[in-house]
Amino acid sequence: MRDATLGIILVFKFLPYIMYRSHNCGELRVADVNKEITLSGWVQKSRDKGFMIWVDLRDRYGITQLIFDEVRTSTEVMKLAKSLSREYVIQVKGTVIERESKNANLATGEIEVLVTELTILNEAQLPPFTIEDETDGGEDIRMKYRYLDIRRNPVKNSLLFRHKVTQSVRNYLSNLDFCEIETPYLIKSTPEGARDFVVPSRMNPGQFYALPQSPQTFKQLLMVGGMDKYFQIVKCFRDEDLRADRQPEFTQIDCEMSFIEQEDILNVFEGLTRHLLKSIHNIDIDAFPRMTFDEAMRKYGNDKPDIRFGMEFGELNAVAQHKEFAVFNNAELVVGIAAPGAATYTRKEIDGLIDWVKRPQVGALGMVYVKCETDGSFKSSVDKFYDQEDLKKWAEATGAKAGDLILVLSGPANKTRAQLSALRMELGNRMGLRKPDEFAPLWVVDFPLLEWDEDSSRFHAMHHPFTSPKKEDMHLLDTDPGKVRANAYDLVLNGNEIGGGSIRIHDKETQALMFKHLGFTAEQAQEQFGFLMNAFQYGAPPHGGLAFGLDRLTAILGGQETIRDFIAFPKNNSGRDVMIDAPAQIDQAQLEELSLALNIKA
Amino acid sequence: MRDATLGIILVFKFLPYIMYRSHNCGELRVADVNKEITLSGWVQKSRDKGFMIWVDLRDRYGITQLIFDEVRTSTEVMKLAKSLSREYVIQVKGTVIERESKNANLATGEIEVLVTELTILNEAQLPPFTIEDETDGGEDIRMKYRYLDIRRNPVKNSLLFRHKVTQSVRNYLSNLDFCEIETPYLIKSTPEGARDFVVPSRMNPGQFYALPQSPQTFKQLLMVGGMDKYFQIVKCFRDEDLRADRQPEFTQIDCEMSFIEQEDILNVFEGLTRHLLKSIHNIDIDAFPRMTFDEAMRKYGNDKPDIRFGMEFGELNAVAQHKEFAVFNNAELVVGIAAPGAATYTRKEIDGLIDWVKRPQVGALGMVYVKCETDGSFKSSVDKFYDQEDLKKWAEATGAKAGDLILVLSGPANKTRAQLSALRMELGNRMGLRKPDEFAPLWVVDFPLLEWDEDSSRFHAMHHPFTSPKKEDMHLLDTDPGKVRANAYDLVLNGNEIGGGSIRIHDKETQALMFKHLGFTAEQAQEQFGFLMNAFQYGAPPHGGLAFGLDRLTAILGGQETIRDFIAFPKNNSGRDVMIDAPAQIDQAQLEELSLALNIKA
């Protein structure tokens, strides 16, 4: 029966089929000489010498030089070739020939294509900026014409690179039996955490969905459901006031595992990071060092230190206080770093650094310096108060060697550490110590469970309210909540937090206790997270997880600081897509269908 | 410098690490006998014979039988084992031993684990339904406790299967140089197509983003941007009144290619479908038959025919009209099918079929039947009007053989075809001709470009407004728009549309013309889709694409009719997530921040 049917169906015939290209613009080589080929692509540039025309034809894969000449090309094609302009879309047929003057900078640089047929597939207006690696277009115009910006190698290659990273991640995790599971985008708004984007429900007047800030609760429910190794590469949403390099929608590599301890999670994601660095950069990373949050703050003033370079903090209270220098004597913390080889800095250069730390963005009141001369002597801005023996102790505490410059800040501990951390990173950049092709991962562990929020006068979860406190610190929850450490960890790469996670609470009682400490009444906790706490009553396994920020991970693996080129259609700092002009007004009828009215305050 | 840093960092020490399991519950075999192992999982069931207790321990990977007995197990562990109840989460240490009575139905059925240590990791309330393949829980309760439903094999395996399909799709397309590119979720509302979900923008009062119904325009912009092979597995959103088996958020495998013709796209996605069937079911599909839309409608009354079985339509106007039977004489179409081997149906069975087609959901006014007896004679419900010679012609037209039952409907052509199609599918189901393990793909091509919409009294795009008309039909756009065929195609599998796509318009003029025919003013077209038409001016390549519905594709590949088990957290028919209770009300403060007020009509 089936065959008879097929027999009849196959009677239908198609028109003859035209091939747009036999090769792409990046693959022809000397070995292809004399082949008759077809290419399609965009006119990168055209040089018309009258009797001869050269055209660089570009597609996603590269550039191939086309040649038209009076002798070998028909008058008609020659005429059409003269009408070509930048970014025209064309198709050519022709013969591969060896070039007379070869271009070693181009993969196809040994050949060119002598064109016999030319078809203009689409004309193009002159683009508003040049489609070159170094373009003449500013950020705004490139955002508006993002589809043209994507034609440029830096953006195109970033998007291809991102694909490579995500494929690599997916294959790695799938091979380890992780199952990618899609969690819903239309969920429920919760007051904890950042501000939600909401979605009015037409079918449920007056009610709203929320877009997920992360699939946190769903992945925990999957653990309750027994799916013991979950991952998802997933969009998340946060309606926050945008800072540079922050997007209202961003992508996470989201993972969760059951029947594990922190050690298992660190192992799996060390493995993933190792795999990425190996497969993408052919770099082997042996050790993933680990550091507690406290240690990171003390040594680098920062919970995401860049350990590609040293300049560890040296605390100088013991050796710099109790002398005649009141500024230090009155300070909670005196702390310094040794800038390698910077003893040769001129007075002007040092003043520049002092001005830099005094800028409002950093906020130091002043800075003391000590030059460690190559002859073993010291010269400082506080020679009046400290002798050579004193300064030698400073050098010991900061690890300074002959030729280094010690820079010292003082004041309230947290603030001073943050200031010195900013200076350290600035020096790292200026001195070229933050090499884009070097990769130094680091686990920061034992984060505090809670942090005090001045605005709301209560503790907030530092990670999120599902993070488990360390058992040995539980007794501090009532007496000194700020001291309780969490089973929480961040993966830091080159001074950026690329991932973070925790071992979760998996019993209703601890979860309820946690909500209590976050200022929820029992009713509020039940209303907001009742479904999770109920789930915990039906046999929740011990579980934990981690999420990587894919946008940043990709940028850093790509050796870049900004994420924008790694996102196909990013939004600007006002959350607008200037290309499609979104957000935009909607019809009154649409509003009414959603049971909404505008309520715009002047 | 770096090493010194690392040296210090590595001083930090971790607490000793406890392993939750050495094996999973699906992997122990006779070869493992005498091994000391650790397992963790859920108590599937427990049989307490007093001196001996058996527990089935379950995890994602399977079930392993545990045994506790008075002789070999400590009193303490024995006591704890007696307290175990269904769905408790436990960890056991013990020795693998060979079973006395083996269970051939269980992968681990030749062994059991003699338990020496038992830890209760979490207790569990009795679940509201049984965690068995055949559960006692109804749909509603299973949706509310979806995390428990996921523990059941049918749901768990569907989710694992979905992961396998998506990984397979991603690897196949990536190997063909397709690049997965994430397009934005916060885009702009457009009036064309289905209703959008919208997202109020706090930062732009009175303005809204929309969630994408598909990444259509973005993927076309990627083509303009030169990314000539794009794909994305992506969530899409439609705020439609829900029908059974339709979700407000659904997942698409979305693809687009440049410098291609329809033939290239069909080839690539035939290849993908072939790859899926081979890798998942080890089925080789040679031919992907093709059929025009017109042909599909004539032969099956349906643009997504199930060709696993015949019962092609036979048009009977020529042989059944111009006799004495007024019902047929007055009908636009008389059309029949031959149900194989159904001549033996009793009068009651045939009446049942007649009642079935007369139900309001089908809507036929009546049905004529002809039994093709094995002796070559015919017996019909219209013997009064037709003789044996007449009925023989009916049999020829419907392909009926001796022993078949011809069923004939009549009336307005489109309506009658739809009714007969419904009957054909019903018979296919009843007669077991729609075999879940047989896969019959089919391309349906040459869809109409436009379809008339009674409600709005205008033509709508049948596919979407970016689909290109066939060149040879362009002249009909003004005179007979309904006759214009599009370069549009659907991939049908077992009677379900699993994918659809088209070759797109790639020049501004044709796109503007298309919008005009859809009733847009030039201003409206510019306002809604100006960014796309502008893009077409900067060198758009010829392009086209296709999107598969992943939810349905997975269900069909999994041999299922409904998609719900293949979605981790589906919504119910009112668009609600009954587990988390979303959508829900939001705070007045949140509304005000969004410059919105509720406007609920009574």
Structure commentary:
Chain A is α+β, with helices and mostly antiparallel strands and 602 residues long. The first copy, chain A, has 3 domains: 30-122, Beta Barrel (OB fold (Dihydrolipoamide Acetyltransferase, E2P)); 157-289 and 441-566, 2-Layer Sandwich (BirA Bifunctional Protein, domain 2), CATH 3.30.930.10; 309-430, GAD-like domain (Gyrase A, domain 2). Helices cover 29% and strands 24% of the residues of chain A. Chain A has 18 helices and 23 strands. In chain A, the strands form 5 sheets. An 8-stranded mixed sheet of chain A has the order 6-9-10-22-21-20-17-11, sandwiched between helices. In chain A, strands 1-2-3-5-4 form a 5-stranded mixed barrel. In chain A, strands 12-13-16-14-15 form a 5-stranded antiparallel sheet. In chain A, helix 5 packs across helix 17 (550-557). Chain A is globular, with a radius of gyration of 31 Å. The termini of chain A are far apart. Residues 1-17 of chain A have low confidence and may be disordered. Chains A, B: Keywords: Aminoacyl-tRNA synthetase, ATP-binding, Cytoplasm, Ligase, Nucleotide-binding, Protein biosynthesis. Chains A, B: One of its GO terms (molecular function) is ATP binding. Chains A, B: Residues 216-219 are annotated as: Aspartate.
